[in-house]
Design goal:
Blueprint: E1 4-8, E2 11-21, H1 26-40, E3 54-59, E4 68-77, E5 90-94, E6 97-106, H2 110-121, E7 130-135, E8 145-152
Antiparallel strand pairs: 1-6, 2-4, 2-5, 3-4, 3-7, 6-8, 7-8
């Protein structure tokens, strides 16, 4: 699978989160439920977001991809300080660092799963800071979607 090296500036994402693990396929159930809640609750739509792109972030790793981690599903915002505090939302700052960028194409969620399976089997020197998938306009058709995955890596 082809990857491109990029350096991203730091940015903030606001959304909802779940603590999960890849052990015993727990993350598949947890993240599917998180997506269901995210898509059902319209209050996230009204937040002052940079775009309609949905970010699915994997962060706060206990160790590596075999340990616990937090998944945040939300939107990129220009100013996390402007987010209403009366909602129980997660605010996550994505650090500026080097990332490998992958493109997943095909049916959801299988196309993204295939990318992550490739990453887990690779020998990439990961940082485990914050990795994320971006679901933009090209991800609207679940039968033929295009999703971008960013993987934090060491220099």
């Amino acid at each position: 699978m082809k990857q491109e090296e990029v350096v991203l500036d730091k940015f903030s994402v606001v959304g909802i989160s779940v603590r999960t693990t890849n052990q015993d396929y727990k993350s598949q159930d947890d993240i599917a439920k998180l997506w269901e809640i995210f898509l059902r609750n319209g209050y996230l739509e009204s937040m002052p977001k940079v775009s309609d792109d949905i970010y699915c972030i994997y962060t706060d790793y206990e160790s590596d991809y075999t340990g616990e981690y937090t998944t945040v599903l939300g939107y990129k915002v220009a100013d996390a300080g402007s987010i209403p505090t009366n909602l129980s939302l997660t605010i996550k700052e994505i650090p500026s660092c080097k990332y490998y960028k992958y493109i997943s194409e095909g049916e959801l969620p299988y196309a993204v799963g295939k990318t992550w399976a490739h990453i887990w089997q690779s020998d990439v020197d990961r940082r485990y800071l914050a990795d994320f998938d971006v679901y933009g306009k090209e991800a609207k058709d679940p039968a033929n979607a295009k999703i971008t995955t960013y993987l934090s890596v060491n220099s």
